[in-house]
Amino acid sequence: MAMNGPRNRIAINPCKRSGNPILPPEFRGRGREPLAGASASRAMDAEAAAEWSFHNFALVEAAGRRAAQVLVDAFPRFFGECPVPTLVLAGPGNNAADALVILRSLILSGFLAAERALVIMTKDGEPGERSPRSEACASLQKMGVRSLVFSDSALETEMRSYPEGPLGKARLIIDGIAGTGLKGPLREDAVLLARRVRYYAERPFVVSVDLPSGLSDDWKPGMPIVEADAVLAIEPEKLCLYNPAARSRCGRILHVGGIFPAALTEKYRAADLVNWDYCRTLIPPCPADSYKYSRGLVEIRAGSPGAVGAARIAARGAQVSGAGLVRLLVDPPIYPILAASATSIMVDTGRESRFVPDALLLGPGWGRGTDRLGSLEEALVLEEQGVPLVLDADAVFLAKDKVFHGNALLTPHPGELAAYSGIDREELLAKPVPVLLALARDKRAVFLFKTHLMIAASPDGRLAVLDGMNPALGTGGSGDLLAGFCAGIAARCRASGTDLFACALAGASLLIRAAAGPQVRNRFADSMELADIAADLAGRAWLPAYEDRPGDERGT
Asked: Any idea what the Cα angle at residue 372 is, between residues 391 and 398, rounded to 5°?
């Protein structure tokens, strides 16, 4: 069994994601979906049966059929004229029942062949058992699908009897070993099943139902987990799928909806999964009579010798996201460099100004010297007066002992949040949500946690996830650009009332969408190029369309 790291992954698939990159959420065609904890999802199932008459058998049937269609739509290469040999790994619960109904639906629809399918169960059913799992298994057996209860001898017999059959030639594995009912680590029999299949199956593509087996609200690195190429995430999608430490084990997350009433999923919502299509609507468009002062002034304190680029990128981010004016305050040694290259950005060394900022941004490339504390205190006075304050990079560290007044947004990456909170980086990546919610409440500030995905938490308890998973953003300057986006959006919104949580979501989703656009697909781009793409996206979102503007239709 090939393991990855400290024996924490069940690497069923040695050719993971070959030819199948993880797609960002924008390409799923959705803007906002509720996320729920695994335990809350179980409670929702119980309420669906008790109060809505959505009983267990009906829910499993609906989820399995819908998931089968989503799977075919997402990966048509497995369901052509020659159906691929398929394995279903079935545990004891309803997650296995979902997987078996998926298999049955695919066979009934002609996408898979019964004689080329095999079900391997961790345990046999109880005598006289009548459950969604036992019923689905019985119908599959009647249709000619072979099944066996897992043991080494059973697998070896299967290989001797059917060397060219589903087990030896399996290309598709449907993982239904464990789901939201899992408590603690995956059981040893389930771990052994997943490991053994790895030796027999040939280049398998692993699709987990609802969750990769082993993942739960309590999962942490070191606990066994099936490494999936895709997850059929049955609504409401589970928040633990977007645990940063687990996210790479989930592959492409496919939303399976249309199972529960929206009122029920909303009741158990713990967070929102959002993208640009939704977040752009949180920010009002510019009125047609806007001018530079009504669009807001952003004041940025950033840069230092050796980090001039951070200041320039942050200022460009504020500009392209809609701010009417950007004033960049820098140290005298780097002033000539930035002043010479600036065009529509004001550059100064921090003298008194007649301008009162509509938003402040501190920190990109700034350094952590005590000489920065005076500027930080000045900014905190303005924050107390209601001016939106964005703290990034070094400013996050300098402000770690401060409590705000509801007008601050902090944008740390894992290392910065570890230094700020005193919590180990790996612990933050394994379970960031409780930490972020507590910090947001106690510090009275919005936190935007930047990893390979982003998580935003507000003092009022709002929580949102943006699923990035784009390595093109793993480059110097992308965080500076994001901070500039957030400050520019906040400044423009101040006249109508700034919601920094909405600004954080809009800025983060703008960055993710820019990096996923066709202009930079399949190549690396620098942050200034991403800024140009973002300018187009932001303009289309928040500037009135030309044909909607009052005035002469001839364009005079």
From this structure: 50
State pLDDT tens for residues 128-183.
Answer: 678 899 999 999 999 999 998 888 777 777 766 655 656 667 889 999 999 888 88
Total residue length of the chain: 556
State the Cα–Cα distance between residues 148 and 162, nearest whole angstrom: 13
In terms of Cα–Cα distance, which of 281, 278, 269 is closest to 461?
269
Q: Supply 151's token pair.
A: 């043991």
| Whole-Å CA distances, 199 to 8, 150, 202, 213 | 18, 14, 8, 18
Q: What is the CA radius of gyration of the chain?
A: 26
Q: What angle do CA 454, 37, 91 make, to 5 degrees?
A: 115
What's the pLDDT tens digit per position in 23-46? 343 334 458 999 999 889 999 999
Residue type for position 44 = M
> d(Cα 228, Cα 173) in Å, to the nearest integer?
9
For 541, half-sphere exposure in the C-beta direction (CA atoms, 13 angstrom radius) is 25
Q: What is the pTM (predicted TM-score) of this model?
A: 0.90
Which domains are delineated in the chain?
A: 34-270 (3.40.50.10260), 278-543 (3.40.1190.20)
Query: Are the C-beta atoms of residues 30 and 218 closer than 8 Å to each other?
Result: no
CA distance 53 to 48: 6
* Cβ proximity of 19 and 267 under 8 Å: no
Task: Identify the CA nearest to 513 among candidates 485, 487, 491.
Answer: 485
Asked which of 137-141, 344-348, 396-400, 465-469 is least confident by mean pLDDT, the reply is 344-348
Angle among Cα 453, 459, 465 to the nearest 5 degrees reads: 20
